[in-house]
Amino acid sequence: MSDEHDPPPAEPAKQPARRRNFLQGPVDAVLRLPAAVRALSAALALILLLLTSLTGLLNTGSELPSSWNRFINTFHPGPKPSDSVVFVSSDQVMAISYLAVLSDNGFGSIDLLDPSQMEQLVDRRPGVVILGDSQAQAQLPVMSDRLRQLLTTGTKVIGMGTLGAALFDQLQPFSPLGMRHAAGVNTTEVRLAANSSASMRANLPIDAPFRVYQADDDTGIAIHDAGSLDILQAHRLAEASIEGSSCGGHYYPVMQQGDFYMWGYTQVATGLTDMGRRLFVDLLSDALKNPLTDTTVSNNFYEPGTYTGTLGCGYSINSYVLRLTGAGQVNVHVTSHQSLELTLSTAGTNGVTPRVEAVSPHLTGRAAQQSGGVWLVTVAYRSAAAPTTRVSYDVDLQYPAQPARRFPLGVLTIVFIVALDTSRTTSSW
User: What are phi and psi for residue 394, nearest 5 degrees?
Assistant: First the structure.
């Protein structure tokens, strides 16, 4: 019998209220759904996510990034390129001379097309397309979207001389193998570079220079590397032997970047030395046997604002890539104590269209109303430079730019919820 003075029993201690996350209710509701409904929700969420991303890209006037192209090509790659080689040139004498070299070295399927017939390449899908002309003023034809797609993602392209560099500028705006990095060379003596292929190193001298052509009657072009091409994924294959360059750097008439190959010379192939013929054949063989790769160059886009730059010997051009995400004008102003050159270029349907705005210590470049796209601003020092030359400047970039579109929170929330472990019936937050 209890004493009437015994204390009352202690009440159980109160537990602190657990804070509910604001997503707890929706998560629990989704987890109570049947597995089939959750799977259907996941599929719909992913479709919506992809459509939202694609719509955002199109609304900003942007091109599809390489990741989208790889995604599409994975599930719809189209027919594979053949083992044929097609030379595109209006200079038939030159083209036939190189095709004869290939025929003598076992290339069975070779052909010649005039530039006006380039659209035939879409249906033929050759393994390698060579384009070149000995005339510096030769022009490229207007290319259809289907042809541009083939040349950028469906075959290998070897560009010869200035016409080849111009083609790379059209296929890939601001290409590291384009005219922006090209310089004239008056020698055909080269030596193999560090990135040359195993076949080249097996068939050609490794430690000594050799001549590509018997004479240096015609000049060629080479890609000038002052140390910046590594970040653009360009591979050096053969370096020209140039002595006494006041600004240093290296010059490469034979280079590769993805599925694009540069052969800087346009002399007739009958003038090739034995080693030069071997180098050309090895370049074609490597192009045919190597798998297709992603040729896209990763550009760092500059936001609107003011930037300080320096030019000098060996790096006479600085570039600024702009991505316009809305409608409006492009305004660029350069201030310097010395004369500089300002160029605005736009990546249009038919390649890059350059416009030199002015040459002065104070430069202002304006582009009329634009509605998106990718632009390149270059600031160049064209005067004579010594190894100690340094030219400082400020460049102010103003153009329509909006913050990058982000996926809606609701879409990301759905994707997160349906990705939870389907075996869970409760959730702790």
Answer: -120, 135
Residue of 337, 411, 420, 345 lying closest to 376 (CA atoms):
345
Q: What percent of the chain has pLDDT over 90?
A: 32
CATH 3.40.50.880 given to domain 85-289? yes
Percent of the chain's residues with pLDDT above 70: 66
Question: Sorting pLDDT into bands at 50, 70 and 90, what band is 112?
Answer: very high
Alpha helices in 179-315 (DSSP H): 198-203, 274-289
Q: The tokens of 76 are what?
A: 């719809």
- pTM (two decimals): 0.65
pLDDT at 424: 45
CATH of domain 305-398: 2.60.120.380
Q: Angle, to 10 degrees, between the axis of helix 35-59 and the axis of helix 409-418?
A: 150
The three-state secondary structure class of 73 is: helix
Q: How far apart are CA 65 and CA 73, in angstroms?
A: 13
Residue 363 host element (H or E): strand 351-370
Report domain extents, the chain: 24-55+405-429, 85-289, 305-398
CA 109 to mean position of chain CA atoms? 30
Rg (CA), the chain: 30
Helix, strand, or coil (residue 222): strand
Cα→Cα distances 188→181, 213, 219, 224, Å: 19, 6, 8, 15
In the numeric block, the tokens 């910046």 are attached to: 228
Look up tokens 């002052």; give the residue: 226
Tens of pLDDT along 352-410?
555 655 566 676 777 666 666 778 788 888 787 777 788 889 999 998 886 544 444 44
Q: Which residues of 10-19 are buried (b: 16+ CB within 10 A; e: fewer)?
A: eeeeeeeeee
Which pLDDT score, from 0 to 100, does residue 53 have?
Answer: 53
Banded pLDDT at 133 (limits 50, 70, 90): very high
CB burial string 400-415: b at 16+ within 10 A, e below: bbeeeeeeeeebeebb
Beta-carbon contacts of 118 under 8 Å, excluding residues fewer than 6 positions away, are: 88, 141, 143, 147
User: Looking at this protein, which amino acid is placed at residue 344?
Assistant: L
Structure letter (DSSP) for residue 9: P
Total H helices, total E strands in the chain: 10, 18
